[in-house]
Design a protein that fits this description.
- This protein is mainly β and 369 residues long.
- The protein has a single domain, classed as Porin (Beta Barrel), CATH 2.40.160.10.
- Helices cover 11% and strands 55% of the residues.
- The chain has four helices and 18 strands.
- Strand 2 and strand 3 form a beta hairpin.
- The longest helix is centred in the N-terminal third of the chain and has 27 residues.
- It is globular, with a radius of gyration of 22 Å.
Length: 369
């Protein structure tokens, strides 16, 4: 069975390469060049040592490995598949779908520019945006995902676009070419609510929206103000009145400049995507929370960069205090093309004195092609 799977993957890759070559030849001959294929890979190769929950650990691991295939099917229709390799609780490496969607490009709707609709296993409205501001997903998940509020993808629909024309080529080259619309960007979506690796346990759908504005696009184009709202039910069995609510409200200010990035955000709400944050004596009652997070990066020359952050998350259910503060910092070296070696220290202090402080040192290499 394993051999047949390997053979099938090899055949698929060979067909993809042949298709890409055929598309290029068709384009050169003046024929319709579609479909067009491209491939991307991203790996996090890691060594970690430290203490968690009072237990020492030391391990080499591949904390994530992504392989993405993109295809341009028609001038306005494209598709993406991303395979996500990860280690499960038994230590076995598994491969699952992270993204599998078709995207239709509607073009511009007046001042709503580059409007696109994703359908399938799609980006939810927030994390793809934040991860193109804070580029260090390699060290760990972003603040809200790491705090167990929600993850990055789900089955559903996402409609997104920008406000106005794009910023200058100079800004896009020197600072960032992601989400480049001059006055900001937006995204709205509706999803199953269980996430891309969770079975949907009820009929409720999660509705999400993000709005980002550049208040000073000419004077400070890298300065953005963003708001996120998520409304739905936690992913537990039962009718809406029997399951804990999911409410997330987040505000973030961010500033990107040629040598770095600074962000600050505040989140409040109740419940989480999994539906696991509820009071034990009342499963339909979601636990409330709020938190702050700050992050900064500064690039010293073309290769070296220093970064650090601080998180403060408050959640105090009736059965105990699960609030914590976290500090982290590191130094990295970019070999080129965002292939980065990072040395990173992370400490989480629980408000409950009975819980041990978690400490982690890691060396992680991001390989990107």
């Amino acid at each position: 069975m394993k051999n047949s799977r390997s053979l099938g993957l090899l055949v698929f890759l060979l067909l993809a390469i042949v298709s890409q070559g055929s598309a290029q030849q068709a384009g050169a001959s003046g024929e319709d060049p579609f479909p067009q294929l491209s491939f991307e890979g991203l790996f996090y190769l890691t060594y970690q040592v430290g203490e968690e929950g009072g237990e020492d650990f030391s391990k080499f691991s591949v904390t994530r490995s992504y392989f993405t295939t993109r295809v341009k099917v028609l001038p306005n229709l494209s598709a993406r598949i991303t395979m996500d390799g990860h280690q499960d609780d038994t230590g076995d490496m598994k491969v699952r779908l992270k993204y599998a969607y078709a995207e239709y490009d509607f073009g511009d709707w007046g001042q709503f520019t580059k409007v696109g609709l994703e359908g399938g296993i799609v980006h939810m409205v927030w994390l793809d945006f934040e991860e193109h501001i804070n580029l260090y997903r390699m060290r760990d998940k972003m603040f809200m995902e790491r705090s167990d509020l929600f993850n990055s993808a789900d089955f559903g629909l996402t409609l997104a676009g920008g406000f106005g024309e794009d910023l200058s080529e100079e800004y896009q080259t020197e600072v960032s070419h992601y989400y480049p619309a001059k006055y900001g960007s937006w995204a709205i979506g509706v999803y199953n609510g269980g996430g891309y690796h969770g079975e949907e346990k009820n009929e409720n759908k999660s509705v999400q929206g993000r709005v980002t504005l550049r208040p000073l696009p000419d004077a400070l184009p890298g300065f953005q103000l963003s708001a996120l709202a998520i409304m739905g039910e936690g992913n537990q069995d039962g009718e809406p009145e029997e399951t804990p609510d999911l409410r997330v409200y987040n505000l973030m200010a961010s500033y990107q400049f040629p040598n770095g990035t600074v962000t600050g955000q505040y989140v409040t709400g109740e419940g989480n995507q999994k539906g696991s944050w509820y009071e034990l004596d009342e499963p339909s009652l979601a636990q409330e929370y709020d938190g702050l997070s700050f992050f900064g990066e500064y690039r010293v020359g073309p290769h070296w960069r220093v970064l650090g952050g601080y998180d403060d998350f408050n959640r105090t259910p009736a059965n105990g205090d699960l609030s914590f503060t976290r500090i982290h910092g590191g130094i990295g070296y970019d070999f080129g093309g965002s292939n980065i070696l990072l040395f990173d220290l992370d400490r989480r202090n629980w408000d409950d004195s009975d819980l041990e402080t978690d400490t982690r040192f890691q060396a992680v290499m991001q390989v990107k092609f």
